[in-house]
Design goal:
By secondary structure, the chain is of the alpha/beta class. Helices cover 42% and strands 21% of the residues. The N and C termini lie far apart (62 Å).
């Protein structure tokens, strides 16, 4: 054996004994960090954010169905995005979230970092009217919480890109806001989807899931 090859083997053996550093925190550590952040902010979310019970509903839906490719329309300052991204961290997924207001977008970025979830979120600043139609599929999960008059347009733009078994959810459907009635009426015409209304909060969340192909 040459001295050069012997030296290479020694280096390789030494490298094998060095522990590999993980690129992300263990799941338990992340759960602890996210929960601590949410606990510290409980009762303080304003600015069009969802109540905790609705965030938890989205989280449970994503984890249960193992969704990985998610879109949020209307980030606000990030409360719902944190619940969604937390679930995606458990399924190996990633969230694209869209916000038109620069101040809210900046605050959401800060909240995502503080919660430890920035690696699971692609936060985009811009007009969802333009961004949403350009999104590529397949998509497993959508949460719509932006301008209610555009709910039907968001749905029709993304539903063809939804994977079988995927779910399109929308917030505030139990409230009398312009555009909600038209949106709910449209959902009744969707032949390959089944809609339920989650009423854990007074806002109401519609959940329309695409039937799996036979």
């Amino acid at each position: 054996m040459t001295m050069l090859r012997a030296a290479a083997l020694v280096l390789a053996a030494a490298a094998a004994t060095v522990p590999v550093q993980s690129q992300s925190a263990p799941a338990g550590d992340l759960d602890t960090k996210v929960q601590a952040f949410l606990d510290s902010r409980r009762g303080t979310w304003r600015d069009l954010n969802v109540p905790e019970v609705d965030g938890r509903t989205l989280h449970e839906l994503i984890v249960k169905r193992r969704f990985r490719r998610a879109v949020e329309i209307g980030t606000s300052t990030g409360h719902s995005g944190i619940w969604i991204a937390w679930a995606l961290a458990k399924t190996g997924g990633r969230l694209i979230t869209i916000e038109i207001d620069e101040r809210r977008h900046r605050e959401a970025l800060s909240n995502f970092r503080e919660a430890g979830l920035e690696a699971f979120i692609d936060a985009r600043l811009g007009d969802a009217h333009q961004i949403v139609p350009r999104l590529e599929g397949p998509i497993d999960f959508v949460f719509s919480d932006a301008d209610k008059e555009w709910y039907t347009n968001y749905f029709t733009a993304l539903w063809p890109k939804m994977a079988p078994g995927g779910c399109f959810t929308a917030h505030n459907v139990s409230m009398r806001q312009s555009g909600i009635r038209e949106f709910l009426d449209h959902l009744k015409t969707v032949e390959d989807g089944e809609t339920t209304i989650d009423s854990k909060s007074s806002a109401g969340t519609s959940i329309t899931c695409k039937r799996a192909t036979m």
